[in-house]
Amino acid sequence: TPIKTDIGRARALYKSVVDLDLKNLEAHAALARTALSMDEFEESVRSYWILEELSPVGKWLYRMTIGDIFFLAGDKERSLQNWNQVKSQAASEPNLIYQLGARMFMAGKLDEAKELVSRAVASNRKDFRPFIIQGNLFDQSGAYAAAMEAYQNVIDLAGHDAGTSLFITPVIGKLLSVQLAQARSHWAAGKFEDARKSYTAALETVKKLKEHKADAAKFEPDIEFQTARCLIELDQREEGVKRMNTLAEANPQAEFRVEAALQVRGKYLKALITSGVLFQKTDPAKPAIKWHIPGISRANHRAVSVVYDYKFDTSGRDYLVRSADTGD
Fold first, then answer.
1. Which pLDDT score, from 0 to 100, does residue 163 have?
2. For 124-263, where are the alpha helices, taking DSSP H only?
3. Alpha helices, DSSP H only, in 211-305?
4. Which residues contact 264 (CB under 8 A, 6 or more apart)?
5. Is pTM, for the whole model, over 0.85?
6. Angle of helix 59-72 versus helix 94-106 axis, rounded to 10
7. 3-state secondary structure of 302
8. What's the maximum distance between 2 C-alpha atoms anywhere in the chain?
9. Regions of the chain where pLDDT drops below 70
10. Which residues in 216-254 are b (16+ Cβ under 10 Å) and which e?
11. How many beta carbons lie within 10 A of that of residue 39, not counting itself?
C-alpha cells in the first residue's frame, strides 16, 4: 500500500465526500485548493469549472480565481482571458472590480488597472484598499500629486476603519517616498520653490511616521538639508548656509545627499560648506577641480570636478562627475 502524505489523505477524503454528495461546494473548493498546493494546476482549474456550474452566484469569483491559477502557472495569456471575462460581466460588484484591478496591476496592464481601481474607488470611498492600489499605480506612472492624494485618503480613513491600522505605517512610508520623488523632480527642473514646499511637506510626513516607527527620524537631517539648498537657490543664502552648518554639527554621522549619486557625512559637510564648493557653478566648457576635503601635505586627497547643465544630447539637465585619488 503506497504511503500517502497528509495532503494526499485530505484529497482522498474530499473526493469521497464528492462521491457521496456531488453538489457539496465546500468539498469541491477544498479539492481545488489541495490540487493547487500540489502544483496540479489543471486539476485545480477543473474543480473551479465544476463550482461555476454548481454555484452561478459565485461564478465570477471562481472565474477570477481560475485566472489567478493560470498566472501562477506562468500562462499570462490564459490568465488575462479569464480576468477579462470577469471585467466584462462583473460591473456591479465593487469588491470584485477592485480585486481585478489589483490583478491587472500585477500583470503590468496599468491603464486597465487604473480604470478598474478608479471605478472601485468611486463605488465605495470608505474602503481604503482601492486607494492603496490607486496610489501605487499613480506613483509608478510618475503622477506624484495624484499618488499623494490617494495615500492621504488611506491615512484619513485610518480613524474610521480599524483594519487600516495594519497598513498605516507602510502607507505613510509610501507617501513620504512620493513626496521626496516629487521634490527631487522639482529640483531637477529648476523649480526650487516647489521643491522647498515638497520637502517641507515631507518633514511633516516624517513626524507622522515617527508615531508608528521610531527610526523614521533618520530621514529628517537630509530632508532639512535639501530644504536649505532650496533656500540658497531662492536667494536666501545666509539662512540656507546657517541651517546647513547647524545640521552638519548636530548630525556628524548622518548622510547628506549633495548630488544624485553623491552623499557626504555630516562630519565632512562642514568643510564643504566653508569652502563654498556646494555653491560654486563653473562654465561647462571649463570644468573646475574642487577639493572637497582639505588634507595635509604629502597625503592622498580625493578630487571631484562637477559640470552643471551639461547637455550632451539636448535631452535635459545632466551632471558629469569625475573622482580620483592622487598623492601629493
1. 64
2. 128-140, 144-157, 168-188, 192-210, 220-233, 237-250
3. 220-233, 237-250, 266-275
4. 255, 256, 258, 272, 292
5. no
6. 10
7. strand
8. 92
9. 1-5, 90-92, 159-165, 276-328
10. beebbbbbbbbbbbbbbbeeeeeebbebbeebbeebeeb
11. 10
